[in-house]
Design brief:
306 residues; alpha+beta; Helix Hairpins; HSP40/DNAj peptide-binding domain; 3 domains; 3-stranded mixed sheet; 15 strands; elongated; binds zinc ion
Length: 306
Amino acid sequence: MIKSYYDILGVEESANKTQIKNQYKKLVKIYHPDINSSLEAEFIFKEINKAAQILLNDKKRKDYDLLRKNNKKIYRPSCNKYSFDDLFKKTKKEENKPIKGDDIFVSVEIDYKEALLGTYRVVNIANSTICPKCQGKKFANNSICSYCNGVGEKIDNKKITVKIPANLKNKAKLRIKNEGQKGAFGGKNGDLYVVVNIQPKDEFTIKDGIVYVEVKISPYTAVLGGNVSVLTLWGEATIKIPPLTKTNQSFKLVNVGILNEKTNKKGDQIVTLIVETPSKVTDEEFRLYEKLKEINQKKKNAKIIN
Ligand SMILES: [Zn+2]
């Protein structure tokens, strides 16, 4: 049985444009590739599009009707008539069309400091390439392809060094062109996307280009003063604090903050000292604190007497 464009759309030969359009819309809702992913639907979808293109164009429809009258063979082949042989021929024909490689998505973890300064990460990606011997057909010389063992593709593991620029936001997506899956038959390669996850870190807070850090010190350091080690973006630094430093007192360190690439100078870091109560004390320390308390009590009583 051979079907005409009218048969394909399921409309009368006398149908007007609105009727054809409505029927076409109805069929699109059934066979659109987004709705129906079967090979059969794909084939029918192409057929109904061809039919609609002709029948919804006045001139093309007129020519088509005329041709049909003169030559019965111009009828379209039936949708029902297509066989897997046809489909095979179809895919075979399309096999050599350029195919773009898929994009690859990977994620990397970097810490807060790396995010500020920029860093590098090596990512491993598995890249599948269409088998160069059998061209993905899985067979060569009438037997299973020996190169890919009939898989039709070759998997290569590849290491790519990715430069992560400074000052990225968490979850930033870097695109590395051309490093995705390989394209086939002259098709472009896909791209590699690297999602950068920045691990939160409490030590550093950045505001207006200045680095802020809190450092805990013991009560005796606060009272006696002395050297305190402070973490900076560039490593550990030591600051000397005066006796009787109060909690929340801040100190400014210069030339240890964020590097300004234009001036090649480092910015400031503000260190805030927090006096921390010890969570454990030895008996000896406990006695010394008692002693301190006693001395203070005496000082107070002396004041009252005065
Ligand atoms: Zn092969």
